């Protein structure tokens, strides 16, 4: 899909990538990828607390009213392309730059599987845990939802911790990939949810080591601060 830039968030450099985001875990992924790849881009803050995501112009970028969204004016065949969904954006930017997605077909598909595991499980389950643990405590007297999402978040942390027992990164020792750029911001989100004690995060030593190693990278720190909350 190609489109004109939204007038509410004008592009001062319409020749470069335009990012529409906020520094939430899903938003951070794309800021980090852009900084790690060194692509030129312009960032526009979308305030989801103020309801910017429901603006008709934003819905032209993402009909699902979620950040992040992105326009690349130099997309396939030199045409402009518009993106929703952070996982798809990471794959696109990886293909565009030849970075953070292994070229070996078997390793490439394995990376994509872990990327999908983040999009389908880590994000939704951690997000629901955060919702019921931090934001909806007063709104429900039923403990079922919090118990369910706490158990799921712990189960997923176990899966990640086991994977990282023998690997520095999700795909191995010397190769950070888009799977890491997708997963690590969601580990960091547990700080914001203040859920470490409930989840027993400290016992997932490899996950903690992995999160700290990821956020020690200068480009990760720069990318994570794009469109700050
Ligand atoms: N699967 C989507 C999820 C995007 C998403 O849930 N974004 C949240 C912020 S982390 C959002 O825009 N929330 C606004 C809302 O729900 O109204 C992706 O990975 O891009």
From TrEMBL:
Segments passing through the bilayer: none
InterPro entries referenced in this protein's UniProt entry, alphabetically: Glutathione-S-Trfase_C-like, Glutathione-S-Trfase_C_sf, Glutathione_S-Trfase, Glutathione_S-Trfase_N, GST_C, Thioredoxin-like_sf
Gene Ontology terms for molecular function: glutathione transferase activity
EC number: 2.5.1.18
One Pfam entry name: GST_C
Name of this protein: Glutathione S-transferase
Keyword Transferase: yes
Record-annotated GST C-terminal domain positions: 104-229
Signal peptide location: none
Claim: Phosphoprotein is one of the keywords in the record: no
Main EC class the enzyme belongs to: transferase
Keyword annotations of the record: Transferase
GST N-terminal domain ranges (all copies): 14-101
Gene3D superfamilies in alphabetical order: 1.20.1050.10, Glutaredoxin
Alphabetical list of SUPFAM superfamilies matching this protein: GST C-terminal domain-like, Thioredoxin-like
Protein family per UniProt: Belongs to the GST superfamily.
Coiled-coil zones: none
